[in-house]
Design goal:
The protein is 69% helix and 1% strand. It is built from 22 helices and 2 strands. The longest helix is centred in the N-terminal third of the chain and has 16 residues, at 91-106. The radius of gyration is 27 Å and the shape is globular. A two-stranded antiparallel ribbon has the order 1-2. β1 and β2 (19-21) form a beta hairpin. Residues 1-30 and 396-405 have low confidence and may be disordered. This is Pentatricopeptide repeat-containing protein. Keywords: Repeat. It comes from Escallonia herrerae.
């Protein structure tokens, strides 16, 4: 059974046989959103709203639509049917639908993107292209779903573009690894005298990091110093940028000046130190992180194990690998095993480690091992590895380059 809709005594009329609800309690949104956990629940409320004619209230209809489109991990079909039944859908109603499509399509539900395209056509057919908020949501939806060119076409058609629209488009380019286009659009934004916000700056820094554009990133940092507060998000983005550009001292300086840090902030600097050949400093930072009672996650341990690998600290690597599951309840993933294989150096020990792993090896691990066999001229293990790969089908041979041993 679903649930019982609460009745507000002051707002009901009672007969000898039935009680009819004529109005929701004071906050209909709370009622709908708290009780609708499945499509069945939404349908029960929907039926009640039709029966009592409360669905004609724009606020109530909008709240029902929000429950169907956003709160439920279900396909959008039912939300579409509710939307179709609305009399002259409002701008917020369109935004609710766009948000629902964005969440589903961004999670890989590509079929839902087709419905998202339908909402775009619906907006055009109803002459709503001049609504900046609505069009920005549509640009954001297409960008997050990987349809960057479609997003850009809509962006270019907008009569008025605020900072949210610019940021959505720049972020879309950055997330699609089209970082040159992201920075070009960032420069266009400056020429248009639109002041960037935190979202814009994070996307710009991400693009600079991807391209190794140190000078452009420094300009972004300078702008942040003058115009924006150094939040956890901005500080972490700066640490990532400087670390990826090889300017690790600047990354450390930003980290030290951050008024607040989270686990991700610590993790990216640990990874940055490790990838810049400062494994011992990375481990020192990790120990300080633990001392400050900041809980590491599985990504943190990838950085820690990489640090051990780069610094040749095999015993420490073994210790942290065991500690990960024993002390923090983090089950090792394939990335952790890859770090361990890379760390061992001794081919025989690494091979034994692979054979005893509770998870299947991937291409990265086999490639690492085969490359080691080539470097150390270990033909015997190299042939055994190749035979194992061919026999087990754990890795598609066509997808990896087998180095000669």
């Amino acid at each position: 059974m679903g649930f019982t809709i609460p009745i507000s005594p002051a707002k009901t009329t009672t007969t000898t046989t039935t009680t009819t609800i004529t109005q929701f309690p004071e906050n209909p949104k709370t009622l709908i959103l708290e009780h609708c956990k499945t499509v069945k629940d939404v349908k029960q409320v929907h039926a009640h709203l039709i029966k009592t004619r409360l669905l004609y209230s724009p606020a109530v209809a909008q709240n029902l639509l929000e429950s169907a489109a956003i709160l439920l991990p279900e396909p959008m079909d039912y939300a579409v049917s509710i939307f179709h039944a609305l009399n002259a859908p409002s701008s917020p109603a369109y935004n609710i639908m766009i948000r629902g499509f964005t969440v589903l399509a961004a999670c890989g539900r590509l079929a839902e993107l087709e419905l998202g395209e339908w909402i775009g056509k619906h907006i055009e057919a109803n002459g709503l292209e001049g609504n900046t908020t609505l069009m920005t949501s549509l640009v954001d939806m297409y960008a997050k779903c990987g349809c960057v060119d479609t997003a850009r076409r809509l962006f270019d058609q907008m009569a008025r573009r605020d900072v949210v629209a610019w940021s959505a488009m720049i972020s879309g380019y950055s997330q699609a690894s089209r970082c040159k286009e992201a920075l070009l659009l960032f420069h266009e934004m400056q020429k248009a005298d639109v002041e960037p916000n935190e979202v814009t700056m994070v996307s710009a820094l991400s693009s600079c990091a991807f391209l190794g554009a140190l000078e452009t990133g420094k300009w972004v940092h300078s702008y942040i110093k003058k115009n924006l507060k150094l939040t956890v998000t901005l500080g972490t983005a700066l640490v990532v940028f400087y670390a990826k550009c090889g300017s690790i001292d600047s990354a450390i300086e930003v980290f030290d000046r951050m008024p607040k840090k989270n686990a991700f902030s610590w993790t990216v600097l640990i990874q940055g130190l490790a990838s810049n050949g400062q494994g011992k400093k990375a481990l020192k930072l990790f120990k300080l992180m633990l001392k400050k009672n900041i809980e590491p996650n599985y990504v943190t341990f990838i950085g820690v194990l990489c640090a051990c690998s780069h610094a040749g600290l095999v015993d420490e690597g073994r210790h942290f690998f065991v500690s990960m599951s024993r002390d923090f309840g983090i089950e090792p993933r394939i990335e952790h095993y890859g770090c361990m294989v890379d760390m061992f150096g001794l081919i025989e020990e690494a091979y034994q480690f692979i054979k005893n792993m509770p998870v299947k090896s991937n291409a990265l691990i086999w490639r690492t091992m085969l490359a080691s066999c080539r470097v150390y001229k270990n033909v015997e293990i190299g042939e055994e590895l190749l035979k194992h790969v061919l026999d087990s089908n754990e890795c598609p041979i066509g997808g990896m380059l087998i180095p000669p041993v």
